[in-house]
Design a protein that fits this description.
The structure holds two protein chains of two kinds.
Chain A (H helix, E strand, L loop, with lengths): L20 E6 L3 H11 L4 E6 L10 H12 L5 E5 L8 H9 L2 E2 L5 H6 L1 H6 L7 E4 L1 H5 L1 H7 L10 H5 L4 E6 L4 H14 L2 E6 L3 H8 L3
Parallel strand pairs in A: 1-2, 1-3, 3-4, 5-6, 6-7
Helix pairs in contact in A: 2-3
Chain B lengths: L13 H13 L3 H13 L4 H21 L5 H25 L5 E7 L7 H12 L2 E5 L6 H11 L3 E5 L8 H11 L7 E5 L5 H7 L3 E2 L3 H22 L1
Parallel strand pairs in B: 1-2, 1-3, 3-4, 4-5
Chain lengths: 211, 234
């Protein structure tokens, strides 16, 4: 495990447009990425985020990353992609291989926040778990509840979540308000609730190695 | 229109009522679809005619608009629920009256994966199209597929996965079929959000089906080819 400073800093503010490494990231990671940059005072990075709502429609991810990479080539010393496979079925990795760009390892952010090896070890146990990160706990209503149409059609709940047993909130920060929201989300979905503090996991390690 | 301002389905002629079923399926109006199915049956329509001309055709339109980005998953699920309700009325009648059988399919979500929305939609549309469907549910290890194949002797094996981490398991199933010398006895169709044609080819499936409508057309096409081959070798 790499040591990364996670203490808040009031003295360093991230400003896009000054770095030589471009991070192309899912919008669901934006807050965590900026937190890490500011607390560690990393000056190497610029950040380009794509819409987090594509979590539900991963077919939009690969073409948009391709555009971002091509737009950025020549302007940066290097480009690094902060996306898991995220439901692209290997197409993201194929694109990145063609473009000569690397990404953070892992199938999705739940895995790299938890640590890919640790996540894999619990795969069987977690098969019926629905994961929330800080971002998803914060935006549960918009992204999950309304995004899946449950605000208009709560009768669809069993079709979406009938095979799930619990919400596992893998927290990046110790935030009681978010934990309450995650617990409320579990209640709303009729699922059990489990809290796991995992921090920034391999997101922090991967960023540090490129800072 | 009735006094309450609601459409009286019984006042519509057959053509209008069929059109109304398509609209009600599109809008996910389950009770209206059920009522229309009962009315069409009362008018002497065969269960098979109700199924194909009212329900399947209605879902075909839903499928096209889903593919074109006009409808989204929640709307498709509501439509599917309505069709399911209509089929629940028709299923016992179809068994009694008989309907053309195009073939038999065993379908299930692979091991480690509990997602079944797409798989259930495919199962329903395949049934509506005239296939006998044995839905073996979620989280299926290779043994369960093999048991179902041995028990039901299907023409088609369907596998589904929603997760990037579980979709490689399809290759485990197909490789096991190969090891047992059974692979060529079955048409293997695969589907699920993260899959693509390249993946299907790489794991040794016969085809990737991007949605339920494509699955039905692909299955029909393969069954036709199978029958042609059998006829040629007879």
């Amino acid at each position: 495990m790499t040591f990364v400073n996670v203490k808040p800093s009031e003295e360093f503010e991230f400003l896009n447009g000054q770095g030589h490494v471009l991070l192309i990231a899912c919008g669901a990671l934006a807050r965590e990425i900026v937190d890490l940059i500011e607390t560690n005072r990393w000056t190497a990075f610029d950040v380009a985020c794509l819409p987090a709502k594509w979590h539900n429609t991963p077919q939009f991810i690969v073409p948009a990353i391709r555009d971002k990479i091509r737009e950025a080539k020549g302007k940066y010393k290097s480009i690094f992609v902060l996306y898991g496979d995220c439901g692209t079925g290997g197409l993201l990795d194929k694109l990145l291989e063609e473009e000569g760009v690397e990404r953070i390892p892992g199938p999705h952010c739940y895995a790299f926040f938890s640590g890919n090896d640790a996540f894999k070890r619990r795969e069987d146990e977690d098969m019926t778990s629905f994961f929330l990160t800080d971002y998803l706990a914060r935006h549960f209503d918009k992204l999950i509840w309304a995004g899946m149409g449950l605000d208009r059609h709560p009768e669809l709940l069993p079709m979406y979540f009938g095979n799930y047993r619990k919400i596992v909130y893998i927290a990046q920060t110790r935030d009681e308000e978010l934990a309450k929201r995650a617990m409320a989300a579990a209640r709303r979905l009729g699922l059990d609730y489990e809290y796991r503090f995992v921090g920034y996991g391999e997101l922090a390690d991967e960023m540090k190695s490129r800072a | 229109m009735s006094d309450e301002g609601e459409l009286d389905l019984r006042s519509l002629n057959d053509e209008e009522l069929t059109q109304q079923v398509h609209d009600d399926l599109y809008d996910g109006l389950k009770e209206e679809v059920e009522e229309a199915v009962h009315i069409l049956l009362e008018r002497g329509w065969t269960p098979y005619k109700v199924l194909t001309e009212a329900l399947v055709e209605g879902m075909r339109i839903v499928g096209i608009d889903f593919r074109d980005g006009i409808l989204f998953v929640p709307e498709v699920l509501l439509a599917a629920n309505s069709m399911k309700a209509g089929m629940a009325i028709l299923r016992p009648l179809l068994a009694e009256t008989g309907a053309p059988r195009l073939g038999k399919m065993v379908i299930g979500t692979v091991k480690g994966d509990i997602h079944d929305i797409g798989k259930n939609l495919v199962a329903m549309m395949m049934e509506g199209a005239g296939f006998e469907v044995i839905n073996i549910g979620i989280n299926n290890p290779v043994e369960k597929y093999l048991d179902a194949i041995a028990e039901h002797q299907p023409d088609i094996l369907g596998m589904s996965a929603l997760l990037t981490t579980t979709m490689p398991y399809m290759k485990v199933v197909i490789d096991t079929l190969k090891e047992k010398g059974m692979r060529d006895d079955y048409i293997v169709l695969v589907g699920g959000a993260p899959l693509n044609e390249e993946f299907a080819k790489a794991v040794g499936a016969d085809a990737y089906c991007r949605d339920a409508a494509v699955a039905v057309e692909t299955a029909k096409d393969f069954m036709k080819r199978k029958h042609n081959l059998l006829a040629a070798s007879a």
